[in-house]
Amino acid sequence: MEATIQKLESYYNQYINYSSNVLLNINTDTIIRRIESLPQCKQIICDLLKQHTISDDIIKSLNEIHKIKKMLEKAGESYYVAFCLQWYYYQKHERTQMRTYADKVIWLTFKDKEATDKIKIFKTDFIRPIIDYLINQIKECNTIYYYLDRYKSRVERYTFHLLEKMDEPALHKDMELYLFDQFMPFYHEPSLGRGRPDFVIDLECNDKPFVIEIKRMDVLEPGLIDKSLRQLKAYLEQFPSYGCLYIFTKDTRYTYYPKSIDDNLTIRCVYLGDKTASQL
Questions:
Q1: What is the DSSP letter of 209?
Q2: 257: pLDDT confidence band, cut at 50, 70 and 90?
Q3: How wide is the angle at C-alpha 143 spanned by C-alphas 247 and 213, nearest 5°?
Q4: What share of the chain has pLDDT > 90, as a percent?
Q5: Residue 272: CB partners within 8 Å, gap ≥ 6?
Q6: What is the model's pTM?
Q7: Strands (DSSP E) found in the chain
Q8: For 266, what's the count of Cα atoms within 13 Å in the CB-facing half-sphere?
Q9: Intra-chain end-to-end CA distance of the chain, in Å
Q10: How far apart are CA 27 and CA 280, in angstroms?
């Protein structure tokens, strides 16, 4: 986690020190490409753009300052960052004239600004929010979700034929070995007074621990999912925390998940069936 944050800060420090107006587009393309080369950042960006999808047609129509300001005035941090990224991708793809990105961010810069001022504003008010968002997300729950999703990918690609024969205790053991290999600080089935959650990750997520409850459901039955969620919520009520219901299944409907139940609770599914991605 710290290594990724340090790389982001290093990339930005190099970028901010470049003052050339002529090379701004090249330097901007370089820092975005370097950011996207970090697997954790790539996943965060992918999730963000799924949450806030802005079409090229909408971006193309925002050719007046008042239109953009009206759209952004009620936007939160995540929406603004999603807008900036998708605006950048559009401008990079549609680049047909020798104008810098700083000349085009009309909601940040104005015609009477000097070129150096435009570059500075573009870097601090366009690129820096992207960096800050990624750092904040890395520090929060995305670190844990990143490793959980990597485990999911590993199982579905390479070890599903082994795990499909396992019962829940064996699945616990496989997850335990994975967390250990990733140097994740965790407790397995700690006593909370009223029950024992499967795993408590001692890597704070918004200053809270993270609880994982593992279930095997070859068929995804809503009643069983609701029962498991109530069990997990009962654990979360005993101490402030975040939680994930982690389901191993052969049900092809698993693609409806991951799913956020509320701000503190999500569902992830790992597919143990034998169908390929093209058959689902």
A1: E
A2: low
A3: 25
A4: 44
A5: 155, 160, 163, 164, 218, 248, 249, 250
A6: 0.59
A7: 186-188, 199-205, 208-216, 242-249, 259-262, 265-271
A8: 16
A9: 34
A10: 41
**Both structure tokens of 250:** 């052969």
- Tokens 């199982």 belong to 155
Q: Under DSSP, is residue 272 helix (H, G, I), strand (E, B) or coil?
A: coil
Q: What is the DSSP string of the chain?
A: -HHHHHHHHHHHHHHHH---STTHHHHHHHHHHHHHTSHHHHHHHHHHHHHS---HHHHHH--SHHHHHHHHTT--HHHHHHHHHHHHHHHHHT--SS--HHHH-TTT--TTS-HHHHHHHHIIIIIHHHHHHHHHHHHTTHHHHHHHHHHHHHIIIIIHHHHTT--HHHHHHHHHHHHHHTT--EEES---SS---SEEEEEEETTEEEEEEEEE-SS--HHHHHHHHHHHHHHHHHSS-EEEEEEEE--GGGGG-SEEEETTEEEEEEE-SS--GGG-
- Name every residue whose Cβ is closer than 8 Å to that of residue 68 and which is 6 or more positions away in sequence: 62, 106, 107
170-186 pLDDT, tens per residue? 999 999 999 999 988 89
Structure token digits, residue 186? 């965790």
Q: What is the DSSP letter of 155?
A: I
- Specify the DSSP class assigned to residue 53: -
Q: What token pair was written down for 273?
A: 């069936």
